[in-house]
Design brief:
The protein is α/β, with parallel strands linked by helices. It has nine helices and ten strands. The protein has two domains: 135 residues, 3-Layer(aba) Sandwich (D-Maltodextrin-Binding Protein, domain 2); 88 residues, D-Maltodextrin-Binding Protein, domain 2, CATH 3.40.190.10. Strands 1, 2, 3, 4, 5, 6, 7, 8, 9 and 10 form a ten-stranded mixed beta sheet that branches. Its main location: cytoplasm.
């Protein structure tokens, strides 16, 4: 981290959608507001009411990368994304707080009418579509089920409907999208929430600015726990 970078505002990396929306009350608890909504603004760098903090809006899967390499001092990402990122970059990020926001669950789902239990019991080799390859591989390995993993980045629900896969591993919140696409949840792998992640060099060099924000997030997040 160069000396010049110490004079810049702290940068918080966020993704659009639920994480952004549910982060706003946490910032408000620290006395900070954001005047623009990334859903309606074309800007990718957003100013805040604090001259010492700016936001950058990136894809959810890219938040850990921006924080790891110091383009952002800290960020908020789902445990699902962090687990996949850690496969290639173990220990690269400091994760002080589970913020308990953007809660959902990582699940196995199949098309309605598919006998998943029989397929698993008979030792069939399943084709599973997912972008959470590490989590899916480890889940089925624990069950002793052989799977061929197909990596997709979107429209996961389509895969079983067109015969690309027997099952999907994806995030589920209400289950409405599954139902609308004639799919059903058959297994929950793990509960997911979003976590605060911090660049280790930033914490060391810019801790006087970062630590009060980390503390404010910890107080504001219901049940937030340090790790």
């Amino acid at each position: 981290m160069s000396p010049a970078s110490l004079d810049k505002p702290l940068t918080l990396a966020l993704s659009k959608g639920r994480i952004f929306e549910e982060t706003m009350p946490l910032l408000a608890a620290a006395g900070i507001s954001v005047t623009e909504n990334p859903e309606t603004s074309r800007k990718l760098i957003l100013r805040t009411s604090s001259a010492g903090l700016q936001l950058i809006i990136v894809r959810a899967s890219d938040v850990p990368t921006y924080v790891q390499y110091g383009a952002a001092d800290f960020g908020i990402a789902g445990a699902d994304v962090l687990y996949e990122h850690a496969a290639a970059h173990p220990g690269a990020l400091y994760q002080p707080i589970d913020l308990n926001i953007a809660r959902c669950r990582l699940c196995v789902a199949v098309r309605t009418g598919f006998d998943y239990e029989a397929a698993v019991r008979q030792g069939s080799r399943l084709r599973v579509a997912t972008k959470y390859v590490r989590a899916a591989r480890e889940h089925f390995a624990r069950k002793g089920v052989y799977v061929d993993l197909i990596k997709l980045y979107g429209s996961m629900e389509l895969a079983p409907l067109v015969g690309l896969a027997d099952a999907i591993v994806d995030l589920v919140s209400t289950g409405g999208t599954l139902k609308a696409n004639n799919l059903m949840e058959v297994e929950e792998i793990t509960a997911i929430s979003s976590r605060l992640i911090v660049n280790k060099a930033s914490l060391k060099m810019r801790g006087s600015g970062l630590q009060p924000l980390i503390d404010a997030f910890a107080r504001a997040s219901a049940g937030g726990t340090a790790r």
